[in-house]
């Protein structure tokens, strides 16, 4: 019996030693993996940086509230009541005054500038009619090219007007005085949602497809070793870049024509402005996106990295921080600065102005100039990276 117990104890000791040995090897492997992760800053950024950034972006950018929306005033009465109501509207914190208009002809001009989301119009003798007849009317004209924002602005303004009426009349006379807001949606009277989504989707598709395709195709050359052959060829870096870009440029332009045709045939979205100007702006945006893809390829070692940077680095910011869905003025000021370096922010302004508002280059020259500068900067940085590899 004693020998049996000793043999049993020996077997258990051997098993424990083996378990300890394998556990030590396993823990050593786990430790090595931790060290590998901590040495790779890209992995750490994916693990901790992206979730933190998404929380901050979604927490502050995704908001259905109205804040600092631009509103212009056309006061045809200029009496004490209109001044008090105007002060109440802008003291609410939801709106900021952009301009005081002089006549109805200024309404379309102020909307085309892009800073004004709504215009409030007081009729002649507004205060006198309210006191004498017990009723007066004002008009709320909103920019219907952004249906969600336009609806919120009109609802907020109507609520403030109703509160002002209650304060002016008092509890005893609350039914004897009435201010009737008349709502009008400019550019999109039916508040069709595709007036907002189609320009945004065009912006998103072009930058993703163009940047993704060029970044992957050049990174693939680097992975397979064929880039070195190109670099020692008689071609200059700028010629290599343009040679890679041109096929995708023409294919992307065909893509634009297809998208615009589908938008017109399926959704009935017209192009109110110059079709030639629109196509020229699309070509500029395509070229900018392609050069951005080239730049991404120069900092990516593998196709997986290029795909990750192109998709994650461009898709979410384009959707959330470009003004595509959520107005930038509703966000904290830091997001305004972040979005100012994002090309989609400017192209959305351009395409909405041309397609929906029918404006010309006079109203979008600043955004166009910014895209030109970005294209030249991306191209210059890409050429410089190629020259460094050549040296």
Description:
With 391 residues, the chain is of the alpha/beta class. It has three domains: 2-61; 69-186, abc type-2 transporter like fold (3-Layer(aba) Sandwich); 194-390, no CATH class. It has 14 helices and five strands. It has helices spanning 2-39, 41-61, 80-91, 105-112, 126-133, 147-169, 194-224, 226-231, 237-267, 275-299, 303-321, 333-339, 343-357, 361-390; strands at 69-75, 95-100, 118-122, 135-143, 178-186. The protein has a five-stranded mixed sheet, with helices on both faces. Strand 1, helix 3 (80-91) and strand 2 form a beta-alpha-beta unit. Helix 7 packs antiparallel against helix 9, helix 7 (194-224) runs antiparallel to helix 11 (303-321) and helix 10 packs antiparallel against helix 13. The model has no long low-confidence stretch (mean pLDDT 81).
Count every helix, treating DSSP H or I runs of 4 or more residues as helices. Answer: 14
Determine the mean pLDDT. Answer: 81
Q: What's the N-to-C terminus distance?
A: 81 Å
Count of distinct structural domains:
3
Structural class: alpha/beta
Radius of gyration, whole Å: 30 Å
